[in-house]
Amino acid sequence: MKHRGFRTSPSDRAFVVVKNVFLIGWFVLVLYPIIYVVSASISDPLMVISGRVWLYPLRITLDGYKTVLTDAQIGNGFKNSFLYMFCGTAINLLMTMLAAYPLSRRDLRGKGFFTAFFVFTMLFSGGLVPTYLVVKDLGFLDRIWAMIIPSAMAVYNVVITRTYLQTTVPYELYEAAEIDGCSDFRSMFSIALPLSGPILAVMALYYGVGNWNSYFNALIYLTSQDRYPLQIVLRNILIKNVVTPGMAINFREKAAQQSLVDVMKYSIIIVASLPVLCIYPFVERFFKRGVMIGALKG
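Given the sequence above, the corresponding structure tokens read:
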């Protein structure tokens, strides 16, 4: 018996064509800057500063990467960024789970009030000056805690995690554990936490990328250069290392130095992006499942 396929109308076919053209164009727009940055980072500095590099590398050299990997300030920035990312992500996951688990329980009294209280903070905040004064009064200025505590939890991620727990973890497990004498904390660590692997992997990716790319808190709360994360070091290179008109003496040397600085900018962008690109494949298999269940159900 032959099965007839569904017929598509001309408008449907036109929509598919337009959609594919749009997606391909958008893909090219996103891909080209990446290709350009990679090509410029391994090209001769003079080729880059003269504007001759626009797609593929010219006179391949690794001088930019050698300078980046041997610079003490950049190395210190990497160390600080890894410290802020790992410590910050651990605290983020702990605070998110401690907030999402009670909100996912049916027997929590005033659950609607507490949920509205959390959501209220997404719409209104104290502002920069009051937050700075609080951080200052707590003694966190120019300390690692200034990079972690002000952003210890994101309410949006709490809502996603709460929804995941509500739709994935059967409530009967909590009831059975309660009959066996299990406390609420024991239920969270023994039942909810082991069953929350996919959503925790997604949250770890969200928080990790956010902590790795964070620079505003460092710009406001940190004053010592030895505590700067990599993003602040990159910002200083992009903004401050520029040849000025007062550098007319020994112009060739200054021009060569400036061209190397330009290549360093591209090299450090690549190096700064590698940790996130290396982490993503390990959580990619959890990403779709965790996001779809946590965001669409409930």
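The CA atoms of residues 103 and 172 lie 17 Å apart. Try to locate this feature in the token string yourself.
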